[in-house]
Amino acid sequence: MRIEIDQDTCVGAAQCALTAPGVFTQNDDGLSELLPGREDGAGDPLVREAARVCPVRAISISEE
After folding, report:
1. Spatial distance between the Cα atoms of 55 and 43, rounded to a whole number of angstroms
2. pLDDT beyond 90 at 63
3. 3-state class of 61 per DSSP?
């Protein structure tokens, strides 16, 4: 699994960080970003839910 966040689309709603705090966080500008080393989701079962609840669909998940 590979997770990407479109920083141009993200509005900083933080739903991803609230849903999967072991994978997502917010940067100094309030936008979502992946925690270091978590680009593959680290096996967190809530990653897909975090992408689903993003209000602007800024998170994409692809299978490798």
Report:
1. 23
2. no
3. strand
| CA nearest neighbour of 1 among 43, 63, 58 | 63
Give 9-34 pLDDT, tens digit per residue.
999 999 999 999 999 999 999 999 99
| DSSP helix/strand/coil, 14 | coil
Residue 43, classed as helix, strand or coil, is helix
Q: Is there a contact between 60 and 10 (Cβ–Cβ < 8 Å)? A: no
Which residues, 6+ apart, have CB-to-CB distance to 38 below 8 Å? 3, 22, 23, 24, 44
- Round to the nearest angstrom and report the end-to-end CA distance of the chain: 5
CB 51 within 8 A of CB 59: yes
